[in-house]
Amino acid sequence: MSNVFSSKKRFRDLSEAEILALAISSEEDDGRIYRNLASTLQADFPSTAAMFIDMAEEEDNHRQRLIDMFQARFGDNIPLIRRSHVAGFYDRKPEWLTKQLPLARMREIVAEMEFESRSFYEKAAARVSDAETRRLLGDLAAAEAGHEHMAGELAETHLTGEAIDEEDLQAHRQFILTWVQPGLAGLMDGSVSTLAPIFAAAFATGDTWNTFLVGLAASVGAGISMGFTEAASDDGAISGRGSPLKRGIASGVMTTLGGLGHALPYLIPDFWTATTIAVFVVFIELWSIAWIQNRFMETPFWRAAMQVVLGGGLVLAAGILIGSG
User: Fold this and answer.
1) Residue-number span of the structural domain to which 89 is assigned
2) Is residue 262 situated within a structural domain?
3) 20, 53, 191, 217: which sits with the fewest CB atoms below 10 Å from its CB?
4) Are 139 and 201 contained in the same domain?
């Protein structure tokens, strides 16, 4: 699209003053991002938060140097130019999205931000012919390279092996509390609670389509119920179990999937083929739940198997007996 019809300005059309103003606003944005990340992580991950705070202070220092350069060359009136105003300029993730990222990914973002800034200034310097402007952009590239090096030094200062291990353990615990526990509870409920109605309907009617409809209704209904129950039961503020919305989604979706697993085979018209596959799916579901309990909840495998497989087998038998009667 022509620049006439675009609301963004091409980088090659920016003046030297505009390039420097763009660098100033970019430093301001990055400093704010670091501070917001530090605020988000302070309670649970103080070492990483301290690193982000130091990075924000470094951005403030370089922003002031850029302002001094601008005032010396162009005066006090700094135009407001942001990344979003320039076509093809690198952009940052929205801060609300960045806060939802895993801890390890947040640490990677630090290096990515500094690398992108340095790369931008290096490419800008390469296409400028004026010696003074080239020297200015080269200084900015060197400053960003210093940022990148500083990020490594700050990580070594604040993120010791012990601190990283402790924070990674905390992140793992949070993942278990927010996603695994509600999801596992939902999967168990959906897999076990729908066994009796589905197989009772199957053996009572011998009709695969109606059995599928019963299974679909039971699975979706149980998923909605479990999702709302989980979300409403605990706001996570005191228990530390995380967002009620995330827990509700995990519980509701896994409950629905747990029931649909052995309802979908009844889309097959032949009754005994569908039932055989459904029973096999139940076997896989119950053993998978036992494995998840052992893997993430540290429940001894054979105890988990006895609880889930034996309990599920009894519910399955009850449904068949009721339907056959």
Assistant:
1) 3-159
2) yes
3) 217
4) no
